[in-house]
Amino acid sequence: xxxxxxxxxxxxxxxxxxxxxxxxxxxxxxxxxxxxxxxxxxxxxxxxxxxxxxxxxxxxxxxxxxxxxxxxxxxxxxxxxxxxxxxxxxxxxxxxxxxxxxxxxxxxxxxxxxxxxxxxxxxxxxxxxxxxxxxxxxxxxxxxxxxxxxxxxxxxxxxxxxxxxxxxxxxxxxxxxxxxxxxxxxxxxxxxx
Amino acid sequence: xxxxxxxxxxxxxxxxxxxxxxxxxxxxxxxxxxxxxxxxxxxxxxxxxxxxxxxxxxxxxxxxxxxxxxxxxxxxxxxxxxxxxxxxxxxxxxxxxxxxxxxxxxxxxxxxxxxxxxxxxxxxxxxxxxxxxxxxxxxxxxxxxxxxxxxxxxxxxxxxxxxxxxxxxxxxxxxxxxxxxxxxxxxxxxxxxxxxxxxxxxxxxxxxxxxxxxxxxxxxxxxxxxxxxxxxxxxxxxxxxxxxxxxxxxxxxxxxxxxxxxxxxxxxxxxxxxxxxxxxxxxxxxxxxxxxxxxxxxxxxxxxxxxxxxxx
Lengths: 193, 312
Fold this sequence. Notes:
The structure holds 2 protein chains of 2 kinds.
Chain A: E1 6-11, H1 14-30, E2 37-45, E3 50-57, E4 64-65, H2 66-69, E5 70-75, E6 78-83, H3 89-100, E7 105-109, E8 112-116, H4 122-126, E9 129-131, H5 133-148, E10 155-160, E11 164-170, H6 176-188
Parallel strand pairs in A: 1-2
Antiparallel strand pairs in A: 2-3, 3-11, 4-9, 5-6, 6-8, 7-8, 10-11
Chain B: E1 3-11, H1 15-24, E2 28-35, E3 38-46, H2 50-57, E4 63-66, E5 73-78, H3 90-99, E6 103-108, H4 122-129, E7 133-137, H5 142-152, E8 160-163, H6 168-174, E9 181-183, H7 196-222, H8 229-239, E10 252-254, E11 258-261, H9 265-274, E12 276-278, E13 281-282, H10 283-286, E14 287-291, E15 298-302, H11 305-308
Parallel strand pairs in B: 5-6, 5-7, 7-8, 8-9
Antiparallel strand pairs in B: 1-3, 1-4, 2-3, 10-11, 11-15, 12-13, 14-15
């Protein structure tokens, strides 16, 4: 957990809290989310029962561009793109189709895309933004906390901003005390909600 | 003749001789696995012949080990089949018991999650009761275990081994009335059990299951079964050819006091009841043939000597 500046698990049962610290660490590591979390405070009270997670996020500036996963080779009348990571192939093709038209885009095999008679400069193509990982971050983060939270806590409330997030879950109806808890836990981290 | 459960591991070369030897000595092969170049036989053999088998299989580089879980069917009961419990720790425990010869089934409850909302339904209860033992794998908080355990065990009559994060003494204190076995410090976790202390915990679960099953075996020995389940398995294999068409890994699952036959009840219950074991005694005479709650399988519950006055 070295990447996180502040990481605390608060629980009325010390042993249970220790297990939840391990679970939080494992799940965030598995989902590759440790790199985006700056501070994290988890609070669990099995007697109520309630699960609260509040945290601060790091700034994500990296956009995925065509050059990050392809090799662009300009030839006469066509540009050949050799793909090294298929993950972003579909969104890239979608952008090419919209921009150049399907007649000018061909994919002879899984790892090759050929652009015919396109007006764009190869450098311009390399700079095209294909994906913004921060868009799916919210979904990933909420999914991870659903895995971490005790099972059966199906009444949930999540908030997510540019730098902060909070997640509250319980099996009972959430009332105003959940907001108080969130404020209190943010304060423990030295932040305001 | 006292039959004891063993596991034989050896090469494929001349493994048929080992099978013949076990059968000639009056033993039974419960399961046979061929894994690449290795053969694993889970079987019951006469106690006095174990050393003889060891001596004969030595030139074949075979190995005979005691496997107290052979011939048992274990239910690993978890609050749900969600990612919270699968694949760790529930699959790890189920797989570990399987390696030691048991047939383990995972019972994920439909509404076993949470604290106040946890519940068990009649189908789950009946399926658990069809096993020899139920291993409950619960979570990390003693408050929750204390609150939901009385609900989750409602109507369960088979011995229960309870696993949870609180230590053994705490589990013993909070669960009332007491269950048959406890393993502490095994709660919900989200990583593979590969560290030595975690593997040690799995061994502890096996030891606890073995202890509880031994107690059950002693109970059965006081009023012995009319026929050994392993023998009944052999009889069905010989006389009901349809069992060879079943693609399930264990078409006949041996239990401590019965058998699960993976054939449709409506079609084959009558056939099974009329199947002769010896001297005109049929399966219907010495066992209850009932429908299982698991798919449309058949459950054969062997009656004790006191009910039938017969031992074959």
